Amino acid sequence: MTNTQRDADLPHSVALQRKKSGGRPTREEAVHRDARLLDIATTLFMERGFDGTSIDAVAESAGVSKPTVYNRYKDKRDLFAAVLRSRIRLWLAPISAAAESQMKATGVESVEETLHQLSLDMLAHSMTPDVAMLQRVVAAQAMRFPELATLAHEEGWLRAVRGVATLLRHFGRLGQIKADDPAVEADLFLNLVLGHAKRLALFGIAVVPAEEEVRRRKAVELFLNGTRTR
Q1: What's the mean pLDDT in 89-104?
Q2: Beta bridge partners of 228
Q3: Are 92 and 155 in contact (CB under 8 A)?
Q4: Is the pTM higher than 0.85?
């Protein structure tokens, strides 16, 4: 007889108390617990680094047992990999999503207006503390976890390149710019707009928003001057 069947034979109040006091968690509870575990592990890894964080500390902070952690992750490396995958998708994907959303906007007919808005969205996101912290952690662990550095590159940068390249092809077809090699040109555009802020963030140097805005506008103008049809 299963636990569920046995619970069905108990008075409702007793069965309810049994669920509250122990027993197998529901799927919803398990999902919530796993998400909380990752959040706690993220905080500790970002604050203490990989070497300064232990499974004991993660389990204690999350309010779970060590076996609970090991049931989900085979070791600290596996847990760290899960944390980085989660953060990469959460923090880097919106940068590239900004390019994709521009294509869905109605009346996307001005290359200058579109690239200025796109660069504003991307730069604002790339300058948030969480993204800057992620960049430093991934860079510090790139040799130990090369597959995660690759994931960050593919999920973040290359997806952004594809999104911008789609926009450049669109405006190339409209005759507003000359887009001979949209993928290369998109990569150059992103480096012009984001390169300076990303480099400062990687070194932990504070970015001055007003100065970065001047650089952003100049970067868009420089790109447009080099790609506009004559």
Answers
A1: 69
A2: 177
A3: yes
A4: no
